[in-house]
Amino acid sequence: MKQNRLMAAVTLGLFAAAGVAQAADGWYVAPSVGYYNNDKDRLTEEGSVFGALGIGKYFNNNAALEFAIDRTNRTNDWPASGSFQNMAATLTYRQFFGEGAFKPYVLVGGGASLHERDGFDRGWDFVAQAGAGLAYDFSERVRGRAEAFYRYDFDDESVPGADNFGDWVLALGVQVALGEIAPPPPPAAPPPPPPPPAEPHCSELDSDGDGVNNCDDRCPNTPAGTVVGPDGCELQVAIDLRGVEFDFDKATLRPESRQTLDEATEVLRQYPDIRVEVAGHTDSVGSDQYNQGLSERRAKAVFDYLVGNGIDSGRLNARGYGESSPIADNATREGRQRNRRVELVVQ
């Protein structure tokens, strides 16, 4: 009885003095106390308490092997006096599960038990045990555990006419880490910053919005609305339609106008990206309303000629201006003739 009290005191003392980190090499001590539910064939009282002390080692966070010695003193039912003492030395494997503070586990092990019963031979017999338990991590150094296991004792000497006994065992204990404190694992390295977005290739950029990519643009930052050529520079396109004039009150092309329009067609073919306005004009003879319609018919005549010679209609915009934009004096015959015209305005 004094022994059991001593083991309990040791257990509580170690528990109270525990630190805060598991040993770096995995070694620990494990004092415990418990209760035997004795096999009735032992001819002892139904239950007895015991004390145990173990030393073990973790091989990883959840697997440990422990050597322990426990001792109990049973009270005999037969013979009526005397004592029956047992001391067991066992090697037990425990497998823990989970990563939280509470960890269920299973155990399996074996060893030898020394039987000392008054009036019988003193001897060692093999024991085997298996069971389960629940552990709780009070800190990184201290782990409490409660377990129940079945111990099978191959004792064939301590009770006349009876061999082999099975006892149920309940135990409460702690594991206290030994040695240096294992440093906490270093924090995970922060992920590398994402790579900067790839700079777009100059062929994908048009900084001045002139329709020519930056690779090919030899004249960057051209003003908005500037008509540019394939090199991004302002397009110097001269489309001279002088000579494309019309008879009085007519919207039909003169034969001599066709050569001028053919030259304009060739210029438009050389620069397929430019767009032009086909602008029709009249002299001042007649009403404004009539001259507006006449100028539109003249613009349409030139428009149709250019389209008929292969110029995409989407590049052309026919518009009449009536008598609003004279280039010569309408008071003279020659001035009025010059004002009856169509112009191509590059846009």
Automatic annotation (TrEMBL):
It comes from Pseudofulvimonas gallinarii. One of its GO terms (biological process) is monoatomic ion transport. Residues 182-199 have a biased composition (Pro residues). Pfam families: OMP_b-brl, OmpA. The keyword Transport applies. SUPFAM superfamilies: OmpA-like, OMPA-like, TSP type-3 repeat. This is OOP family OmpA-OmpF porin. Residues 233-347 form the OmpA-like domain. Residues 1-23 form the signal peptide.
